[in-house]
Amino acid sequence: MFKTIFSSCLAAIALAMGPVVAFAQQPSFTQGEAQTDISTLFDWKGANPRTANVGTIKSSDGREWTVPAKTHFQSGPKAADLYNEANDFEPAGWTEIDLEKVPVFDAGGDEIFTACVFGDNYFEFFVNGQLLAVDPAPMTPFNSSIIRFKAQRPFTIGVMGVDWEEHLGLGFENFRGAPFHQGDAGLVAVIKDASGETVAVTDENWKAQTFYIAPLKTKECLIINGNRRDSSNCSTDDVADGSAWFAAHWPIPENWSATDFNDQDWPNAVTFSNDYVGVDNKPAYSNFTDLFDDPAADAQFIWSSSLVHDNLVLMRTTIGK
């Protein structure tokens, strides 16, 4: 009886207060660079050589985190190349792509769709909770990919985006002489049906939530308001030594890419211009502006609210609902 009265009181309080702000899940904080379980996933020796390492770090509350992210790079099927210098596949444009040579993944259904993705730096592509393909180049060179799949409308696309780092657990990279440079991110995608009609592009209608934010000069610069994780007050400057800076982490929901996952409280994706992202010198994108920047269906670069600080972002949309 007490339980019934207590529940009734809570309901009355909720009605009196009006809409309730979503529960603010507080992050776990780490400080300094990851020093354990360091391994190399990919080593690029060409222009702008970079090594994509991964490691683990413990937060002040005793949790262990994989940085920059726990991925399926070593086990997942690799997406086909739209443009990839690492594989010596460098077409001048969309007309040189032979889709018949691209394998088709089965996500349940008879209709064939084609997704073209450019991600800075790394992505994993899910349909209805099923991992279909991973980016074949985690950090550099900058590449773009094609994923063809069979599905039935409506279907849910989930994309995990990772902005890779060279100081693991800190979000910093080495860039043009700056040993502690704050890199940026961004992802753009176009999805077409078998007739070539564009059925979806990345835009502000997607949902996007961040689960790893770094570098943070202080923990206090990060503002948590419901499900909004706002790092806009945090420094974006390069520094000579950021080895004592902080990072914020949240656990990823196990079923985040599933059709029935409730993303209602996630923020909408934020869009960014081509100039802001800086893709004019990246042929993996600029060779395909007729695809990504089609005036009839212009795909936007999306991410969570910060291209600089937000390093692990989950994005979702449902097509044909």
Describe the structure.
By secondary structure, this protein is mainly beta. Helix content is 9%, strand content 39%. The protein contains 4 helices and 22 strands. The chain has helices spanning 2-17, 274-277, 283-286, 289-292, and strands spanning 28-31, 36-44, 50-58, 64-67, 80-83, 104-106, 111-120, 122-127, 130-134, 144-151, 155-162, 172-175, 178-182, 186-192, 198-201, 207-216, 223-225, 228-230, 246-249, 270-272, 301-303, 310-319. The strands form 6 sheets. It has a 7-stranded antiparallel sheet, with no helix packed on it. Strands 5, 6, 7, 10, 14 and 15 form a 6-stranded mixed sheet that branches. It has a 3-stranded antiparallel sheet with strand order 2-3-4, with no helix packed on it.
Structural topology:
Elements: H1 2-17, E1 28-31, E2 36-44, E3 50-58, E4 64-67, E5 80-83, E6 104-106, E7 111-120, E8 122-127, E9 130-134, E10 144-151, E11 155-162, E12 172-175, E13 178-182, E14 186-192, E15 198-201, E16 207-216, E17 223-225, E18 228-230, E19 246-249, E20 270-272, H2 274-277, H3 283-286, H4 289-292, E21 301-303, E22 310-319
Parallel strand pairs: 6-10
Antiparallel strand pairs: 1-19, 2-3, 3-4, 5-10, 7-10, 7-14, 8-9, 8-11, 11-22, 12-13, 14-15, 16-19, 16-22, 17-18, 20-21
